[in-house]
Amino acid sequence: MSRKSILTSYPLDQIVLPELKEDDLDDLPPLAKAVSDGIGSFADKVIKSGKHKEAVQAYLATTTYVDTQIGRVLDALEKSPYKDNTIVVFLTDHGLHLGEKLHWQKTTLWEEGTHTLLMFRAPGVSEAGGVSERFVSLMDIYPTLAELCGLTPPAYIDGRSLVPLLTNTKAAWESTAITGLCDKGKTDLAYVSIRHELGRYTRYGSDQEEFYDTTKDPHEWTNQIDNPEYATTVKKLRSLVPSFEDTAQPLPSALTKERLSKKRREPRKEKQQGE
Asked: N or C: less crowded end of the chain, CB within 10 Å?
């Protein structure tokens, strides 16, 4: 099965495009607006060229193709002698914008760029078909696997074991869904966002923040950071995000410039026929 052949399963006249808001970036601080620039400019190229439906169609075909291959692997495991003692974890490393927030692809701290797939199959532990609505982090995977395998993870790692949620999808849980990002030009400037039952809070700088009441605004269209109605909520979420002093610093900008400069000087290796 090829991706091209799957396209026929998604006729263009049946493609449902994401709902977009022309002034979606107007209530954002400067650093947040900059996140949607650069690679996000692909959104302009796709949408203004009139190819939005074709782009979404290609994305759907790609994910369907991958789903099919994953199904083949799981079918093989089910038929093998290891099906009852094998832990399966399926995850993705980032979400994807298809025009939302005037952005295309990844590298944002909004819902589309941070919401990922995460599935566990732990024989004798997880509930078949169980779905948890709690907010967790990819950093929770390692301590989860350690506990499932009877191992003790190092004390210095971040993340919490998800075993309580594997055994009870509605178990009490304090959100661990914290995502980090850095400025594309000055990589030593760290941005942090937390997704919580109360909403999403994002800190770009000491005076550049976002807060969305996702219970009422799932598209994150209205930044409520200055709304006094949410002052208590924002204060709580601020306290859950690491301080500037505690946040791990990304790669220094000077090293990034040196790395990029070196990359530009290196001759491009052309792909050889047959590779």
From this structure: C
